[in-house]
Design brief:
Layout: H1 4-23, H2 29-36, H3 40-46, H4 50-66, H5 69-75, H6 78-95, H7 97-101, H8 105-133, H9 142-150, H10 163-174
Helix pairs in contact: 1-2, 1-4, 4-8, 5-6, 6-8, 6-10, 8-9
């Protein structure tokens, strides 16, 4: 069992790293430990390498986003929940550019492998709810949806953010028409 202070230190480190790396992908481990208010030894005990820290930040964010699905489905119809969830995912992916800069190619692949299953499971849950209530076409595929929405976080955000309009088109294609 992990002590409460150790859990708090880990959470502080992850929060500080998330913010610092999103601002500047070259932020040092020492800067992150200072920002988190912990010593370098505590940081390295939790995350022995920079890459392990960045991977943990990604995993934490994926868990946060995928964990919102049940509440969204309890609060709104499936298509609205899917729109809200996808918008959150797009915002998170856009914030991750600094994190991506901090990783090597092997870590990028590890992130993709580790996050694909949970993200597909979340999309499946959202699509299945819409299929069940008849608002989403029965042939909607989670893998296809993820591929399509991948374009959203790379869409131009200025002078006008194109992602909301593109998402509306994707969601319209998922609707049952009858």
């Amino acid at each position: 069992m992990v002590r409460s202070d150790a859990r708090e230190n880990r959470a502080s480190i992850l929060a500080a790293a998330r913010e610092a790396l999103a601002e500047d992908g070259s932020t040092s481990m020492n800067q992150i430990s200072q920002r988190a208010g912990v010593g370098a030894g505590t940081l390295y005990r939790n995350f022995p390498t920079r890459e392990s820290l960045v991977l943990a930040v990604y995993q934490d964010e994926v868990a946060r986003i995928t964990g919102t699905v049940p509440d969204l489905l309890a609060q709104m119809p499936p298509l609205d929940a899917l729109r809200h969830w996808t918008t959150d995912l797009v915002e998170a992916m856009r914030r991750k550019h600094g994190l991506g800069d901090a990783l090597g190619p092997g870590a990028h692949q590890a992130i993709s492998e580790q996050s694909y299953g949970p993200v597909i499971a979340a999309i499946t849950q959202l699509l299945d709810a819409g299929k069940k209530d008849g608002s989403i076409r029965p042939d909607a595929d989670p893998g296809d949806f993820l591929q399509l929405t991948g374009a959203l976080w790379r869409a131009a955000s200025s002078p006008e953010d194109r992602a909301p309009h593109m998402l509306a088109l994707i969601l319209d294609g998922l609707r049952t028409h009858g």
